[in-house]
Every structure is written in structure tokens, then in C-alpha cells.
Amino acid sequence: MRAEIVSVGTELLLGQIADTNAQHLGQLLPQLGIGHTHRQTVGDNLARLEEALRLALSRADIVFTIGGLGPTEDDLTREGIARALDDELVHDEVLESELRRIFADRQSSWVDSQLRQAFRPSCARAIPNPNGTAPGLICEKNGKLVIALPGPRGEFVPMADGPVREFLSMRAGEGVIASRLLRVCGIGEGVLEKKIGHLLASSNPTVAPYAKIGEVHLRLTASAKSVEQAWRRIEPFEEEIRSIVGLAVYGIEDQTLESVVVEMLRKKRWSLAVAESCTGGGLGSRITSVAGSSDVFVGGFIAYSNDAKAKLLRVSPSIFTEGGPGAVSEECAKEMALGASRALNADYAVSVTGIAGPGGGSQAKPVGTVYIGIAYPGGVWAERQTFRSDRAGVRERAIQWALIRLRERLLDHG
Predict the structure, then answer these.
(1) pLDDT digits (tens, 9 = 90+) for 151-183
(2) On the chain, which terminus has fewer CB atoms closer than 10 Å, C or N?
(3) Using CA atoms, how far apart are residues 132 and 135, in angstroms rounded to an integer?
């Protein structure tokens, strides 16, 4: 059974709001054994909505619409569904009675435009909406199924997870789909695909790579008659991937790099400090976003100017003199890390210094040049990276690589 989602709303096309409802529904469908092959977004235009729905019905067994069920003139989903199914809209007296009751209970003024919500395609039945006025719809005609859901998040989620899930559970049959996300860091997408290319050709389970900044996410998905059977198909693939890439697999599902680093430090009872220049506190922010990070993170410095680096972190003034290596250098990164470690009595300290741009670069040190330093028990280490991106991208990549290198150093000393 295949499904398609059609999200309705000009505000979605303009990027004014994120389509988190479609994301939620996309995560629900595999749990019910329903394949999700396409998604469309269409604005508040009846002709284009009808066109989108006819296309969806031509290639899917179930079509979901999200939004456009309200009382205003631009709420066109009911009309669009009726046209796409070659059906007609009918007035439902039961729905009107329920709407009037809701308004009376709320002591709200009734306006006739609310009656739009009492119409439905003749092939449809309503889904109660205890959190709003617009009912959902289940429309069945010519072997096709269209399920219309309201757009407001507080109405959509309870309806999708409640009556719609229950209805689909009875219709979906025995098949289920299970998936697992493996998070890999420090290996580029091209290198990783070369290592596991033979697995990418599999059809069940499938292995799909998604490139992220400094990471690659691998989605392993299997279909079977039961959840247990689906997991049995996934497990050997996961084991093989782990055997090939080893410790580069740092987490699963929603684990983040910073949460894994914090947990590694906590297990060893090690403390951490940071010294940041071009990242302006972003590294410390990533770390402190983890609940419980106060167990390991003692603090940090945003030493942006050379004077601040010298005064706060005790970086040698000779680094900044003419002929010296300069603030963006291996020497400076090492002294920054050591200075933060000593000042805060931290077992580990990470430093970042670089040129985020758009100006300030040179032939020897172009924009995107970043040095990452790590002070650790018994030594200090630093490396140069060059990131090609805009200012925000350079900063984000520098933070990500600082966390990757810190994790590697923690593994080395584990």
C-alpha cells in the first residue's frame, strides 16, 4: 500500500512556516506498513490543488491532505478533494449541528462562513476534531482513499495519532516497516559510499546515506510481516556497517555528537573547558545544550581579540608580533587550549581560532582557515582545517570538527 502527502497552504510554499505535520505523518506511515513514495506542497489555489490531488491519486492508494479545512475563502481542500474524486460537496446537517454546539459552548459569535466546515464530499465521513472546529475527512471512492487532516499542529497530531492511526491499522494489513538511523562522523560521504557500496544496492533492507556537516547519516529500512522480522533483516546490515567503519559510527537515531561527547566525559569523570575565537561561543553552546552537561563542562572563554587571548588565556605575546605565527596558527590554538585548561583546572580543553570571513584572508591563510587545539592529560594537539563556505558555514563546520576531534581524542585516551 502506497501513500502520498499533499500539504496545502501558500504559507508553506513561501517558507513562512515549516511543514512539521508532513514530517510527523511521514514517520507514522512506516510504523503501519504503508510505503510513502511522494510528497507535494501546493498553495491555496483550487485548480492547482485539484491537479496535485489527481496526480497523487494516479500513483498512490492513499492520499493525505494537510490543511485547508477551515472556514475562510482560501480553505479549499474540501472542494479540491471533491473535484479530484469526481464527486460533489454535500451539506452535512450533523456537522452543522456540532459546529453550532461548539460555538455556543464557547460563547463565541456565529458567522455564516463557519458553515463551510459542514460540507464534505458525498463519499466522505467526518473525523471528530475535539481540539478545533474543522473535522477531518475519510473519503473513499473508486478504490482510492483520501484522508484530510487539519493544519493547526494541536489539531493535526491528536487526529493523526488517534483515529487516523486506528483506522489505518485496520486497513494496512500485516506488513510493517522498521528503520534505524546510524550516525557516522569523520568520514566523507564519497569515502563511506565506496566502503559500503555493496550494501547500498540492497532492496530489503535498504541503506540510504544522507550527507550532513562533518557527518553522514545512514538510514537502514526493512519491510516484513512483523516488526521482529524487520529488525532481523536490519541487524546483520548494521553489524556489517559497524565492522567496516568501526568507531566512526558514533550514535543512533537522535543522538547528537555533543551528547555522545558529554557522556564519554561523564563516564570517565573528566572535565572540559573551551577557548573560542572565530566561533564566538558556538562550541560551548552546543555542549551546554545537552542536559546534564554541567557534570563535565566547567566553562570557557570567548577570546576574540589578540589582547584577550594574551590576558585571559596567557597566550605568548610573541605569537602576535610581526614575524610570529599569528592568532590563526597551530601555536596559538595549542596555547589557547592549554590556557583554558589551566585557568579552569579542566582535564580537557578545546580551542578554535580561524578566519570565518568574508574578509581577513590571505594567500597563506585564506578565508575558512581554522585551527583546532585540544589540551589533554599529558599533552596538547592541534591541526589546521580549511572550510569552504560562507561565514556562518565556516563557524558551523569549525564547531562540528572540534567535537569530532575531541571525541577521537577521548577514544584514544579511553
Answers:
(1) 999 999 999 999 998 898 777 655 677 889 999
(2) C
(3) 8
